[in-house]
Amino acid sequence: ILKGNPFLDELIILERRKWQQMSFRASLKEQVRFYRSLRAKKFDLVFDLFGNPRSALLSVISGAPVRVGFGFRVRRYCYTQVIAPRGGEVHEVDFNLDALKALDIPIVSRQPRIEISQDITQNARRWISALGITNEKVVGLNPGGGWKIKRWPPAYFGKLADELIKLYGVRVLLLWGPGEEKIVESVSQSMKAIAHRIPDASLKELGAYISCCHLMISNDSGPMHIAAALNVPIIGIFGPTNPDLQGPFGIAHRVVRQESVPCLGCNRVTCKIGNICMTELDPAQILKQAEVFLCDA
After folding, report:
1. Please, which residues have CB within 8 angstroms of residue 78's CB and are 6 or more apart in sequence?
2. pLDDT score of 57 more than 80
3. Which residue ranges form the domains of the chain, and what is each CATH number?
4. DSSP character for 227?
5. Nearest to 258 by CA among 236, 287, 282
6. Residue 241 vs residues 78, 131, 226, 231, 294: alpha-carbon distances, Å
7. b/e per residue, 59-69, with b = 16+ CB within 10 A?
8. How confident is the model at residue 138 (pLDDT cuts 50, 70, 90)?
9. How many other C-beta atoms lie within 10 A of the C-beta of residue 43?
């Protein structure tokens, strides 16, 4: 996601998974080497936006004289500037931007962005062109995303896709990531019309396909936030998570929820009552919101 960002001079990768595959001795040696190289860079300032014990410790190991982080538990003592979390519901974007306010740094823009190279974008456009898509509007459907109860049923996505094609003559792209092959297959099998499943793609390549869409309809997921960073209009489908905190960032997007469910936004990873916040959300509700983006009248 961060590669190619013009605002970054260097990316330093903490290869935790690689270390876990090593023997204890080899892993320890690699970690010490990494921490020494980090300290040798003599950073002046650290912002810890992750805020877990490991990142807090890395802030200290860096040797930076100024360390900014959130005041959670014992971790607060790793920072020289502690940010008091706001009360109430605050979107993750604004939550992170509070780190700048701690040092009186002005916020120039609140809009997330992602840089995708021209080559990657052109490859995605060529693939779409090869499907015979010319003047039709393209709608991206993202039926995957995180834990199971966050996901709207694949058959509902299939029904929605059929209605979008029937009413608006759009072409539908099925977006997916690692481990989501069966989900998009279920969507395809439930459809009467044809949707186009994108090829296996990196995050940047996925972003390129998303950038070709006139509208993206998505569960709460990483690809949804990529679309927001690319200024692609979004209809976000939410149930157990809270769109006020994790919704698509920007004013042009819509969120659909089954508002009658009392435990909406529970943030649980399992459900004992049949995941009704998602299963009772009718495709017609999403279709109604799509009209705003797809109707030419």
Report:
1. 48, 56, 57, 59, 60, 67, 69
2. yes
3. 16-101 (no CATH), 118-294 (3.40.50.2000)
4. H
5. 282
6. 30, 35, 18, 22, 27
7. beebebeebbb
8. very high
9. 15
